[in-house]
Amino acid sequence: MAQFKQNENIDLNATSFHIYTPQEPPKKAAQTRLVSERKSQDTAAAQTALRRAHEEHAARLGNALHGIKDAGFGSLAEFLVEMMHTTDQQHSAHISRTLGTHGQQLLEGICIRQPGITNS
Question: Is the whole model's pTM more than 0.70, yes or no?
């Protein structure tokens, strides 16, 4: 193990860190504090990651909605109506597959947002 000489210009007792060794393990209170600090850091990091994910999701939705308008549709509703009534075979097949796979989720979303529409 390397030996370090004490520098007379540095007061090692005044530093804010301590190197733990097997011969001198951390005290229980220090361990508890370190674990608590680590949990706080982990929680803060998780909250930051979740906030970023929400922001990215909102940005993607915004881009998609702007893309619909950029494609010449006046509104999301106009786009959806056109999509459901397309006569293009490839588009129609794609929409049919999507509805077959995700139709239940879409209906559940409509029920949550506008329950009166699906109850009539």
Answer: no
